Amino acid sequence: MASGELAIAVLFLWTILVTAVLLTLPRLLTPRKIVTAEKVMPYESGMDPVGDARHRFDVRFHLVAIVFLIFDVELVFLYPWAVAAWSDSGGIPAAAAAYGSGLVHVVFAEVILFVVLLFAAFVYAWRRGVFDWR
Predict the structure, then answer these.
(1) What is the full per-residue pLDDT of the chain (134 aa) written as tens digits?
(2) What is the pTM for the complete model shown?
């Protein structure tokens, strides 16, 4: 067996050992719990729960979360471009000098198209009533 294969085998065995220890040690060291009806009852900020905990949420909560994620991802894509485009080291114009001057306009047009599409998605969501909280 080569030394590389031996190292992988030792690492694999070490991983199995650490996993087994980490899974069994808490069972051995923790005190046994006494289960009562009061302890398994849901806890809501010190108040007794009223009604069923399994009620359905309004879909607006999920729609607002999805719209937030969409526009948050927009920022994740636009922020690095803005930093690169307007940095002191030249950014995109300096990189475009190596590829030709047309690259700056192509990149800018792509970013504008990206923003226009996201704005169209925003208008669509607004017209569909996603932001109306009745």
Answers:
(1) 688 899 999 999 999 999 999 999 998 898 888 888 877 777 767 676 677 767 777 777 777 788 888 888 888 888 877 777 666 666 666 656 666 666 667 777 888 898 898 889 888 888 888 777 76
(2) 0.46
Q: 64 near 126, Cβ under 8 Å?
A: no
Could you tell me which of 14, 9, 42, 94 has the C-alpha nearest to residue 1?
9
DSSP 39-97: TSS--BTTB---S-S-PPPPHHHHHHHHHHHHHHHHHHHHHHHHHHHT-TT-HHHHHHH
